Amino acid sequence: MRDHYDALIVGAGHGGANAALALRQRKFTGSIALVSDESSLPYERPPLSKDYLSGKRGFEQILLRSLPVWESHGIDLLLGERAVEVNAQAHALTLESRRTLTYGNLVWAAGGRARRLSCPGHDLASVHAIRTREDVDRLREEVRSAARIAIIGAGYVGLEAAASLTSLGKQVCLIEAQSRVLARVAGPEVSAFYAREHQARGVEVLVDRAVEGLEGANGRVARVVLKDEPAIDAEVVIIGVGMLPNLEVLGAAGAEVANGVRVDAQCRTTLPDVYAIGDCAWHPNRFAAAGFTRLESVQNAVGQAATVARVLAGEPAEYTEVPWFWSEQFDLRLQTVGLSSGFDQTVVRGNPANRTFSVVYLRDGRVQAMDCINAARDFMQGKHLVAAAARVDLMQLADASVELRSLKG
Ligand SMILES: Cc1cc2nc3c(=O)[nH]c(=O)nc-3n(C[C@H](O)[C@H](O)[C@H](O)COP(=O)(O)OP(=O)(O)OC[C@H]3O[C@@H](n4cnc5c(N)ncnc54)[C@H](O)[C@@H]3O)c2cc1C
Questions:
Q1: Count of domains for the chain
Q2: Can you tell me which atom of ligand 1 is nearest the CA of 84?
Q3: pTM recorded for the entire structure
Q4: Closest by CA position to 277, among listed 248, 251, 298, 256
Q5: Domain end marker among 222, 239, 256
Q6: Distance 347 CA to ligand 1 centre (A)
Q7: How far apart are CA 86 and CA 101, in angstroms?
Q8: pLDDT per residue over 71-103, tens digit each?
Q9: For 255-266, what is each residue's pLDDT tens digit?
């Protein structure tokens, strides 16, 4: 058993796993370990609210790589091991098992944990999060015998879970505090479209609702208590109210942390030889209104993994990718490019009633982001407009028969 690694990576999600693989692709010959507090082999997280929840895909089918691939790449998997302390001066990482490992470089790819509610009843049995494979295994087991499920939070994870559970014949009630679904991440046209699609399949969509607490019967959750309204009966409750970045260990070690671990364009934290990537990294991003952001997407985690691998392999690198994201609900595939927050105008291409359309977000007349629903061509062809923050003719932009690649900024 080694006690030193040239590249020690904490977290074996999309960020950590891809950093390890990318290091080998870049001919990094040093020793590499992936430390994960989950006991499973590294797996894809997006299916947890989609095909893995609905049972269409099993665990083997969502593995990022099979065990022999990790072995043949000389990447040690330290599974079921939680990193609890970093001593940056000593270049040492302590695990909960009290084992201490020294490192040449440390990559912090610890993602985040599901945000919990703090209201009365939040800790009752049958209240679930969807962040890890174990969460979903427990949820699937309980969902089997449940008829009515309440989901608190109508962001992407909440909506995807509602779609997956509806496909299993469950009666789902979505409860959202804001005035529309996807309020934090999409414009009103997209919110209205998804609310309608869910309602059309029998999902009860309640917006502008304040949850006061969860009540139980026989030790299990039985209903969601709303302010000034009758309670919602539910045998299972899913909390989908976002995540909290895992930054405390690096923060305690002296790293600068805010809404994430602060890094530069090479993913360097403020600690020597310590990098941070993925969901936990507060990074410079020219697509973010404030110039810095923290993104929760596979693209971001994989892109930063590639950047850190280049840096550790001694190559010039800078993380500058155009952000993109996807979501799958029912037979709808949404693809997003750019970051829409702060937009002051939207242009709709196509007709939402046909279930194939795009919403283009602009700020100060420049294309900032696009949500493309069953419109892969717009997504592919519109990327360059987002990358260039293009100013385009709005009549042409709104005309779905005009191909986006023909528009010049
Ligand atoms: C249900 C769900 C659906 C999603 N769907 C999409 C989608 O459709 N499209 C998309 O682009 N993105 C999606 N995302 C987001 C995407 O999965 C994340 O952005 C991505 O997983 C981030 O990768 P990461 O490596 O930064 O973090 P994670 O994948 O969270 O991996 C971090 C790992 O580190 C481990 N860890 C944390 N702390 C420690 C510690 N102290 N010691 C050891 N290990 C530790 C964690 O347990 C975890 O295994 C979804 C996320 C969820 C939860």
A1: 3
A2: 41
A3: 0.97
A4: 298
A5: 239
A6: 32
A7: 10
A8: 999 999 999 999 999 999 999 999 999 999 999
A9: 999 999 999 999
